[in-house]
Amino acid sequence: MRRTTAFGFIFSLALLALCALSLINTASAKARPHHVHASQRQAQATAPSYAERQDARQWALDFAGRQDLPEAWVQAAIADARMLPQVIRLVTPSSKPNAKNWATYRDRFIEPKRIAAGLAFWQAHADILARAEQTYGVPARIIVGILGVETLYGQHTGSFRILDALATLAFDFPQTHPRAQERQAFFRQELEQFLLMTHGNRADPRNLKGSYAGAMGLPQFMPSSWRRYAVDFDGDGRIDLWGSTADAIGSVAHYFAAFDWQAGNPTHFEVQVHSSPAQLEQLLLPDILPTFNAQSMQDLGLQLPSEARQYPGKLALIELRNGEQSPSFVLGTDNFYAVTRYNWSSYYAMAVIELGLEVERERAAALTAKAP
Ligand SMILES: [Ca+2]
Question: Which residue of 119, 170, 174, 372 is surrounded by the most CB atoms within 10 Å?
Answer without folding.
Answer: 170
